[in-house]
Amino acid sequence: MKLSPIALGLALAASSVDGMININWLVKIVADKLKQFEIPIVNEFIDSEVKKALADTAQIQRPPLVAVQNGDTLSYKILQIPDMHYTGNNFFPCIDKPEGMKKLCFEKYMTEMIGNLLDDVKPDFVVFTGDQIESLWYPQTWLTSVDAIDTYSRQVITRKLPWSMVFGNHDESIAPQLFSNRKIMMAYIESLEYSYAKYGPFDIGGAGNYELTLKSPNSTDLMHMYFADTHNDGDIASGQLEYMKSLSASHKGQDVPALMFFHIPMPEYNEFAGVGQGAKREPIGGHANHSLYNAIVEMGDVKATFCGHDHLNDFCFKKDNLHMCYGGGVGFGAAYGKKDHPRTARIIEWSRTSSKEAISTWLYRINQDNSNPDKYSIYERTLY
């Protein structure tokens, strides 16, 4: 049987899970070659138009993110949704249809599932941690990429849920002058309702390097959230690292915990040895660059990191003073999975009483009983 280029690409991507081929390495080589043929004036045009759009969205005033008060307890529930890989085609068939699923499996099932997930978890905030859309193996023009963004964001917007995101290595085409472009997508995402995502500084590397702050009802800072673009290979630029460190330094003296979200895991995730929460089911896809971990250690306020990328990994563990967590993967359609393993998302809950502050996390397994989750403690301290 002759495979179409799209089907062949997806088959290769799926085979990389078992270590047969390093598909991300291959994509990087092709992308680097194509970059040599980019026309400078096109990039200048894109940058100019994106900056104009960002100037407009900078005028949007979002209400602060405020912890929920219930008696003397403050709380905030974050839902991490990893690796959807939307093509925008409702009838794109599922690559790895779950065992026991009798009906036909198409991408539109994922849309229904995410709606059910949101209604069941009832989060206060949603973070999409990359590979929201599939642009590597499914051609996305500038316009169709926006349509795919609308499809997934509509689920949070219609529920009036605040949300943010980072890009993954599948969100942008390897030929962004012609097809899906992260700069254009980020400018659009900033403009959407209930979106707290930000482009961040324009020239430090990538798009989507920013921070958000959880506030108390009386407007004091309770928790910071950092977001970083790990590009197409996980190799974060020095400008991004310096920016993250400067954000953290601006909070010195607050004694406030922070979380960080990005797509491609740091190489330190390889040190997971089975102690913690969840499991490792495929190789760690991180770039062999320890600069992000070193920067986080230097920052000092980050208690945990959350990534996606490797759909079958859903573990959390602690290295030194930092917890490192995977979200798993929720994608049905172009996203690979495992037929006998449920798709997963991750819930993170911050809480504070007059005597204690804590952050815990647990996995949400799609189409499973989630009434008694195995909670993993990230942070806890006694308040006086």
From TrEMBL:
The keyword Signal applies. Keywords: Signal. CDD domains: MPP_Dcr2 (cd07383). One of its GO terms (cellular component) is cytoplasm. Residues 1-19 form the signal peptide. Residues 77-311 form the Calcineurin-like phosphoesterase domain. Transmembrane segments: none annotated. GO terms for molecular function: hydrolase activity, acting on ester bonds. This is Secreted protein. It comes from Thraustotheca clavata.
